[in-house]
Amino acid sequence: MLSKLKFLSIALAVCGFLPGLRLLADPQIWQIGVDDPAGPGGANEFSPENSVNNAGPGLVTRISGDPLYNALSNPAADDDYYFSGTYPIGFNGLTSVLTVPNNEPAIAWEHSLTKSDLTNRFHFILNASQVSAGSMIRLSFDLYTGGKVVNGTNEGFGEHDILVRFKNALGTGTQIYASTITNVSTISVIIPTANVAASVGPNSIEIIRTGPMTAGISYWTTFDYVRLEVDAGGNADPAPVAVATQTIPEMAAFSMNLSTIDLDTPNGEMLYTRLNGPTGLSVSTNGVVSWTPTEDQGPSTNIVVVKVTDAGIPRKSATNTFTVVVTEVNRTPTTTVVSTQTINELTPLAITLASADPDLPANTQTFERLIGPAGLTVSAGGQVAWTPAEDQGPSTNSVSVRVFDNGNPSLSTTNNFTVIVREVN
Predict the structure, then answer these.
(1) Cα–Cα nearest to 297, from 331, 251, 334
(2) What is the average per-residue pLDDT within 46-63?
């Protein structure tokens, strides 16, 4: 059986459930273990199960600095895990008040549920606001591997009937989840605290493998982490801050930061996701919009829709819709080099100049003569025509032609070349 022994203490974590998201103080989060993206290849943190279905109240594995810590007699993992707090007589079978100054370390949590070791329980303290009207609970845990061994052969993940029960301070239990798990699974349950009669003070959640129990077959399924989040008073919708129309030139880098008002107290950070927008526009998870429009994306008017999601319980979302206008930026036309032309006097010269406009769509180009010998003409379409007279040969003639577009503003370039006229006897 795979073992998960991580040397990592459990803390009252303020960390987000969404990937890459960190919360402030609301929701409050109790977490055992670390969500390892690597799964079975990740670091190990828990203790092997002891193959005994322990009854409560269980023992507390203490850490150095706890007044009751004793390295020689510190208990190992059992079926009960205690977060810091004071637990009264009668709770979970306690016969005396139990004071836990620090969360138990990760090794106090048994890593697997098996055919003989069915149950893991954890205990925590809720305050009055966390059980007030509208307050919500989200429980999530990851079963990252499992096994079913028949006659010494592992037949894969196996089947595991998993039941989750919430118990309040009086021991009143409410089933909040039941399902058969047959592969790697992340289980998430959201429920109002009122629905489970949550208590001000100590409460428990127990996770039980209820079957199958076929004789001669071994079963196990292994935890990666367990997380409990409580959102006092419930969760309000996020309110995105309106974005005015943005006007940018094509081929220029554009960046802006989106913002959202969180009506919850204290505020939580938001996760942003692009829903609609032009090709190439990106939105980072923390709300940075980035885009460099290409030549063929200007001019254009673009609708951008971004979803923002909070980490409350349940998570709530809103959309922010705004417009990005891309303006056309005119670019200078280019010309094709003309090699030196050599002709006889009294012989016609006819060449067509070529140019290109890099804009999309391309602008119209117009040619005009700037410099050249008498009689040489250049049409608007770039046709150069000349028949040198008798007295124009022999000669070497410089020709300069300007080509301009109809963009705004109009841009131009020149094409310079030479025409040599030979004397004809």
Answers:
(1) 251
(2) 90
